[in-house]
Structure prediction request, 193 residues.
Amino acid sequence: DIQRLKDLCPDLLVMAGPSLDAAAKDLVGKKMIWCADTALPALAAKGIFPQVGFSVDAGYASSEHFCGLVSKIGSKEMVLVSDLLGNAAVQRLPFKEKLTYQSSHPLVQQFCSMAERPLTPVDNPRGDVGSLMRNIYALLFGERKVKVIGHDGRSLHKISHARGTAYYQRAFIRQTRLFTPELYLTHLSRRYG
Prediction:
């Protein structure tokens, strides 16, 4: 359950919005970073690994953010926070610990009604990972202030934060680690996304 995050109070909440690149210097030396899966490739490229990663999307794109990072995830002892209906490929990665919560999805509600131990309910009406991180932080730590990087709401191109993968594709498609099916899906998402 996410109550375990009370022991992992963050210095920063990091999302994949356009302000992430400009604020990268604020990340150096921070002891506890909570990070959206969409921002993980940007942080990893700078040699920064968060202690807690959040992933809410059940789709294939969610697993793209972890490409090439499997050994780092295991060696850095990252904690994953995800929905019970999260992407199975992400769930199988070697995180130190995997935490979840009770979302508003009917299947999750049904499961939680029969569970031996209840999960902490978390509302996320916007459905994006940045809002989820903020909501969980507020639930666990109340009014305590925390610095937020990259949750810009909308960029200059009117790309909302729920489409953090658009930022990921623009910033990291130049890297040589994306080939074949992933590159094809990236091209499709640009065309139809």
Residues 129-141 form the longest helix (13 residues).
